[in-house]
Amino acid sequence: MNAQANPTALSAYFLAEVSDKIETHTLSVLVDNEPGVLARVIGLFSGRGYNIDSLTVSETEHEKHLSRITIVTTGTPMVIEQIRNQLDRLVPVHRVTDLTVQARMANQEKPLERELALVKVAGSGDKRLEALRLGDAFRATVIDATTDHFVFEITGRTSKIEQFISIMKPLGLVEVSRTGVAAVQRGAEGL
Amino acid sequence: MTREMTGANMVIQALQDQGVDTVFGYPGGAVLPIYDEIIQQDAVEHILVRHEQGAGHAAEGYARATGKPGVVLVTSGPGATNMVTALTDAMMDSIPLVCITGQVPTHLIGNDAFQECDTVGITRPCTKHNWLVRDVDDLARILHEAFYVATSGRPGPVVVDIPKDVQFATGTYHGPSANPAAAHKSYRPQVKGDAQSIRAAAELMAHAKKPVFYTGGGVVNSGPHAAQLLRELVDLTGFPITSTLMGLGAYPASGANWLGMLGMHGTFEANMTMHDCDVMVCIGARFDDRITGRVDAFAPDAKIIHIDIDPSSINKTVKAHLPIIGDVGHVLEDLVRIWRSSSLKADPAAMKAWWEQIDAWRARNSLAYKPNEDIIMPQYAIQRLYELTKDRNTYISTEVGQHQMWAAQFYGFEAPNRWLTSGGLGTMGYGLPACIGAQVAHRDALCIDIAGDASILMNIQEMSTAVQYGLPVKVFVLNNQYMGMVRQWQQLLHGNRLSHSYTDSLPDFVKLAEAYGGVGFRVDKPGDLDGAIEEMIAVDKPVLFDCRVANLANCFPMIPSGKAHNEMLLPDEANDEAVANAIGAAGKALV
After folding, report:
1. Percent helix / strand / coil, chain B, rounded to 5
2. Which residues fall within 8 angstroms of residue B331, CB to CB, at 6 or more apart?
3. Scanning every residue of chain B, which has its alpha carbon at the shortest distance from the alpha carbon of A7?
4. What is the ipTM of this complex?
5. Which residue among B18, B19, B32, B176 is least packed, with the fewest CB closer than 10 Å?
6. CB–CB contact B120 A36 (8 Å)
7. Nearest to B344 by CA among B194, B213, B200, B215
8. Which residues does the UniProt record annotate as the domain Thiamine pyrophosphate enzyme TPP-binding (chain B) (predicted)?
9. Prior bond to B557 cis, omega within 30?
């Protein structure tokens, strides 16, 4: 391509400095808990081609019928800004907060993020013992067991859960159910 | 004040309380209770269309020509799905529309009942918001909220889906809230711009050497007051001004600073001014791909001020150096006041040089076409139509295609709300119903749909509506027997293989007009054109005017897709070879 590094006013080809570094952000979205609200949020992401890495939703203020949706998404800074603004445009959305940006502004690496997983492992002999030992090391709780299996409950950052699951794979991993990420800002202040 | 009444009654009462005088609609099983109320009152006039899509576009035309929300009433299932195109169109062009749909009774929802569809599911991505009303006691609140959401902030379409049992049920009605903004729980559009940013914008403008105003449909949506302020600001600053397709008329085409429309089929001077400017003031426009052309070559030296009511328009495709979120009218009022009170002034020497440059571009005469004495050139037809109607009270709608671009290039708009066109979605079949909507709102005006022979057939059935209500709309068909814009793109992109863009077996438009009860004209000689147009204007009936134009004329100038503003294909350079090679490999994938 005959692009020029130093464009003149009359040049047709001009390459803007595009910051297309992909970033992962955690957004907190406060919405009216009304029928279809989750479909609006999800439809926005699929319709506009945004990514959802994780999505968690539950009513958090029952008397006001407010739900809090936590979304982990990836994109360029421009796309993340778009996502925030597009979410904010939905009528039942009260507030959208980019927790990752807030954490950055407070000089923190990340907001507080936790995920819970239920991990079923089946097997016998050494593998079974090894699974139990590692469960202990990861501070996972056994919430169901027979002589053939364990179900572990594990809480932590996404990376910890991922690591636990991959370790359990050769030890007889049967299935996993994950909640997705719940997140809040560090410190005394709320949304 | 609250009263007990049925859901169907509430709909009529709410329309009256919202000041609605006209509803466009089509009855069906799931809205019969509402239709039973409609016939028993005369405060709200119902216009019966021939297809629900027509109702939607008519309501859009009504909205665009009045500044008020358009209201539509259709039934469940196919009634609702036929509305989807019009809703999407209104969404893309920010047209306030309140669409009331009937729904099967609540106990049948989800049962695949007759004429059931998931209306709120289907219309969710093509409305600003929608509601399914499950309890008659929520109906009044939701209807009033619907009008508030449709008309405030960035306007748009909304749908209220009302099951039939809710229409029959009795509940409590209350009138609109005195302060709907405060009453709403979560929706808070920002109308007032940030004062500091507006001051910064004024400073930036005052220091500009090569400024330009780039305005859009947001100015029209903001109301006549905003257009007035825009004119004032242009006069104060002396800056050149261009506009998108949607914004035509906000600044008069006869104004001294007018550059013509910009973008893919905009003028050379408008696009070159945009490309070379150092300060761009974007007012109520959204950097659509038809405007920017190649984004990474868009206005490389410009500092961009972007005024928009919708924060999601900011930095969507083009980075704004100075965003101002707010209603155009409010922001312009502050901007004009600051400009005046700080005695800011554009640099006279720089402005002189800038205008000299612009005049040189203007001299390129990019809209030129070869006149022809035997065949009507489409551009000539629009020019004559303009000359013969410009001193009248006119509203112009269009369909979509070459005729639309020629209308935008050659018909001069002096005031906002006079130009009704489908910009964002590009909906063929928009023009006739939109023209009907404008004529319903302005019975004495001259309402013309500038159409193409292909587009007009997409909603031709609405001729019947026009005849029924005595609406003397004039459909001016530039008939070249092709889907002209499709053919133009096939010439540009696909080696002139004209796959299915030629319309064989077109109807006889004169007979067609007569079959509907209207009047038909056919003209194929340039010399007969003026007389026929005069006759058309004089007819007090719906008219189909079959204007036979040069079949192979193409629409120039043009920024081929994937190219920049300063790489326009000008009419005198657009020979077959240039056309065939205008678009590169990367551009071919673009639309």
Report:
1. 45, 20, 40
2. B193, B198, B283, B307, B324
3. B300
4. 0.92
5. B19
6. yes
7. B200
8. 400-547
9. yes
Phi then psi for residue B24, to 5 deg, are -105, 130
Q: Which two tokens stand for residue B320?
A: 């704004």
Please check whether residue A78 touches B, CB under 8 A.
yes
Which single residue is written with the structure tokens 């901007």? B335
The three-class DSSP label of residue A59 is strand
Full-model pTM: 0.95
The angle, 0 to 180 degrees and rounded to 10, between the axes of the packed helices B431-441 and B52-66 is 50
Mutate to test the interface with B, among A8, A14, A65, A67 (most CBs of B within 10 A): A14
A43: nearest CA partner in chain B: B125
**CA–CA separation, B68 and B155 (whole Å):** 10
In the sheet with A93-98, reading across from the earlier edge strand, the strands are A54-61, A66-75, A23-32, A93-98
Residue A3 contacts residue B297 (beta carbons within 8 Å): no
Q: What is the full DSSP assignment across B205-263?
A: HHT-SSEEEEE-HHHHHH-HHHHHHHHHHHHHH---EEE-GGGTTSS-TTSTTEEEE-S
Return the residue in B271, B312, B316, B358 with the most chain A beta carbons within 10 A, the one to mutate for interface testing.
Answer: B312
pLDDT digits (tens, 9 = 90+) for B546-584: 999 999 999 999 999 889 999 999 998 888 888 888 888
Residue type, B22: T
Q: Which amino acid is at B493?
A: L
Structure tokens at B132: 């399914």
Question: B438 — phi, psi (to 5°)?
Answer: -65, -40
Q: How far apart are CA A145 and CA A121, in angstroms?
A: 9
Q: Tokens standing for B97?
A: 């529309």
Buried b (16+ CB within 10 A) or exposed e, B155-171: bbbbbbbbbbbbbebeb
Residue type, A19: S
Beta bridge partner(s), residue B213: B241, B281
CB pairs under 8 A between A and B: 68
pLDDT tens, residue by residue, B298-329: 999 999 999 999 999 999 999 999 999 999 99
Tokens of B525: 């000689």
The CA distance from B169 to A27, in Å, is 42
